[in-house]
Amino acid sequence: MFGIFNFLRRTPHSKYRKSNKPLASQENPSLSNKLSANLHYLHQLFNLTPDLVIRQVHSDQGATYAALVYLDGMVDKASIHNNILRELAYKTPDEISVGSIHKASDWRQVEDAIFQGNSVLFVDGQPEATVYGTQGWPQRAVEQSPVEASLRGAHQGFVETGSQNVAMIRRYIPNRELKIKELTVGRRGRTKISILYLADVARPEILQELETRIRKVDIDAIMNTGELAELIEDNPFSPFPQLILTERPDTAASHILQGRYIVVVDKSPTVMAAPAHFFTFLTSVDDHNSRWMIASFTRILRFVALFISLFLPALYIALISFNYEVIPVQLILSIAETRSRVPFPPILEAMLMEITIEMMREAGIRLPSPIGQTIGIVGGIVIGQAAVQAGIVSNIMVVVVATTAIASFLMPNYDMGAAIRLLRFPMMLLASMFGIVGIVTGAIALVAHLVSLESFGMPYGSPLAPWRFAEMKDMFIRVPIWAMLKRPKSTGATQTVRQKNHRGDEDS
Amino acid sequence: MKKDAQNGITFMQYIFIIHGSQVGTGVFSLPRILADKAGTDGWISLFLGWGLSVIASILIVLIFRKYPNDTLPELMIRLFGKIVGKILILPVIFYFAFFVWTILTSAMLFIKQWFLPMTPDYVVMFLLIAPGYLVASRSLRILGRYCELVFYMMILMFFLFLFPLGDSHWVHLLPIMKEGWLPIFHGVFSAIYSFLGFEIVFFIYPYLQKRSLAIRGVIIANTLTLLFYLEVTLICFAFFSPDGITEYNQPVFNLLKVIDFNFLERIDMLFLALYLFELSTAWLPFTFGAIFSLGFLFGTKNPARYASLLFLLIVVLSFFLHPSWNQNDQWIIFSGQAGLWFAYVFPAILYLYVLIYNRLRRSESL
Predict the structure, then answer these.
(1) Most exposed of A21, A187, A392, A506 (fewest Cβ within 10 Å)?
(2) What interface predicted TM-score (ipTM) does this complex get?
């Protein structure tokens, strides 16, 4: 879209890509069969690493001894004390009662293993080390995500451990077609990325594209899923989110069942789904959980809210300052009355109020909840009565801003809600410069942009652009679940049938 | 050149691109022009115009049946050789670009007259063009999706015209054919101008995914256009008196002005503003035609570059020319006449040529 901004993209010559790593990690020597040599090298590798524990073990024979190495705090101490150290006295390293045991023969593997919370056992006289899966870092309990609360959906949210997140999704789809592809991103961060998909449903081209894009990322570390999403999304200069970020296992599982790919990023409680479509951002889990009429009503309500939160302030500005002949006389009289004391032009009035309410909203997010309530009260007074009485804004403006704010709270997805909130401002500017024509051109630009956006080769505007009647069963209204016999085509699903028609009277 | 399936358009998109490019600003004054030429029988001229344009568009499809992977520029080169073919593309580019210019200037004049009388021409022009760039700089597929979506969005517009039905007097239409066929034939020329736009088939046919449906598609598209024109014309004829209608320049607006809800007045203004959507589907296909031919002429296929070039040219031109209504009328007449040749006569000649050419080729090879 904005080709001129291409220079902002990273070029392959950017400077932090050059590796200036220490010598040891560039070459990859194999282990020595002398324990003392190994320990010496270990000390070289991990100097100034006080949390590295090297426990030397003397066995009964006395002659040979071993060393167990792990990072304190990254391991499950109970398993190290009770299983490994105790049993080493009378068992060989391979007999230890730990679930995952494998061998490492070079230093790269050893290093990786230690950093991932494994414990590594070096035995004198053997040119390889035994790696025990003893991971046990500080973890949060599974609880509901505060951003994506639901009425009746599951109250589980993802946690910061990738493997647990994968397990939570797998519980919904215990099927052997659920495949997991693992990648690693980040030279320093070495973040494990798992791509989950149904092999017989999801379209393989998308996986290929997703994989190439993730593999291309060459960065020192990623902290969150949002960062990865920004690195791999199709159009970085679009206001719309192009990957679905969610913290809910049930949402993730339903995306997989629709033929999408779920990318689980280790260390982040958010997973992302691709390919994304505009309208998936307007759906919530509860839509499929409540009865279809109620769900349809909420859907329509959400679309109305979308329009209100995009266009209402702009429309107010356009009608007041340009096209007042559109408003009926009675209404224009009462508006004129309330506006008679306001010294500002409509755009300034609207901007003032919108910015205030956006600030309130932003302030409320990170404040501890007792203070957060105060913000609400203070804001209510500022936005409401006081501003009108002071003659800064008109009553109608307060109504407009409040309605807009309420409408924008209806967006079930935070990213999309934020995009809509942001787009409101250019709309207001256009309206203040060109009136209704400005709003319509803004709308045309939005439609044109939505139509031309693509997410991993799949049209972003689907099922509106390209128009697919069959898929509108789950858009403006949600038809009963038994009538949705097919998976959405928009995700490129190769296996289209989702259920058999068990009611009989509906044709597919 | 291989027309990859990725870039193809569906049958519906094909219909809506054609339909969209036919419906532009012409419809506002169409009832008046028809009434001028053919009296209250003008709506019969629409049927004749529809018939002619269907024939012409079917001819175009038939030409390309023989060369299913060619667009117009490729066909020109195939038939007339590289140099003559490229020279023949030049007027085609000019035709499409001029159509874009005409539609945009008349849209700009409408906007200036109704909404923004003080705003400079080039600013309004820029406002119109900027959103279109997002579509024009991309492939045909995007244009197809856009036209399709806009058609469905604008369906409500079709129903808006039904509101004045209550105040209409159908007696105005009677007696049918009161002055015989002659005035109706006079009206046909005005009618076929308003069906111009189907010549975009020259460019989009090879991208159609199911080419066997191409003829059905052009008929449906033309019929959709006919229905819309017919509705507007008939309701205007029934609403205004036979003499009164010729006094309004754009009777459609005067018609819409009558509608008012108690929460909204002046529907005509809202309508015109929203009609910009419909207008964008009129000039964007023409832009595609121009850009595609330009790209063909110069060998590189980056639509974004040509789109920005064309649009920049239009904005700059409107800055220097300050188009007026009279000039715009002249341009419309000129482009209409050019369209008459390009969209109606040219396909017939080309079809004959292709027939003869094939026969000669075959006898040569024998």
Answers:
(1) A21
(2) 0.92
